[in-house]
Write a structure and sequence with these properties.
alpha+beta, 3-stranded antiparallel β-sheet, 6 helices, 9 strands
Length: 194
Amino acid sequence: MSENLQIEFDTKNLRATLQRVKEEQGPRMLRNLRRNLRSVGDGIIAGQRQELSAPPPGVAKRAGKKIVRVKARDGRKAYLRAVNVYEAQAAKRSRSTNLRGRIKQNLKTRVVAGKTRSGIRIEAAKTPGSAGKKSYNMALVWNKKTFRHPAFGGRSEWVTQYGQPYWWKPINEGSKQAAAQAEKAINDALNGRG
């Protein structure tokens, strides 16, 4: 997951299927099929928006460290590593950038039917935020358990804040239903019922 958060439902040769619907059923049916395919992610996006609508997380204050055993990804022997342990404290909410509202607004379903890629993609468009001179994709940052950012007011003080992992739980719960909806929409369009 590089630039955007996204999940893609790979339908078998979507580009050829769309072309077939256009040739056999006409452009009107093709428009209806594309509209129906864009709606297959609505349940997942509603779940993600619900996760983002939960009460905002607080500030994470470091309470100490603990040692954890880490299994190496490249097949080497497992090793021990010290990680921070945080405890939640209420945040002073005197200012807000409406970050969660902007992330909710930028969740969408796209139908991609290009030469190299085709499928139905649910994505969180890049939501810019800034810290000093660097710009960050805050939709990606907010999905983390914790993240660091400068305190409001332009001071040089940095704080650790809890994120709100909103991305994967609704996808795990709704991906089978979304794939079934996409399959049904394609079959309906091919049979002239879309």
